[in-house]
Specification:
mainly beta; three-stranded antiparallel β-sheet; 5 strands; two-stranded antiparallel ribbon
Length: 71
Amino acid sequence: TRLTEFCAEKKTDATVAGAIFTVYTDADATNPFVDKDGNVVTIGPTDANGEATSAQMRTGTYYLKETTFPK
């Protein structure tokens, strides 16, 4: 399953490049999703269009939290 995240500046709707999101299995973002090797799964960095894609996802419900902010 492929997951694509889109990132835009809240006030201006301008796309944001360089953001990285950590994937969580709970809405409170306290339980990170891990891959088969036990590594926390992240998505990003976002490209110039504000998009990032991950193919590491299994079918399910996930929550994303921006954990690395672009400069």
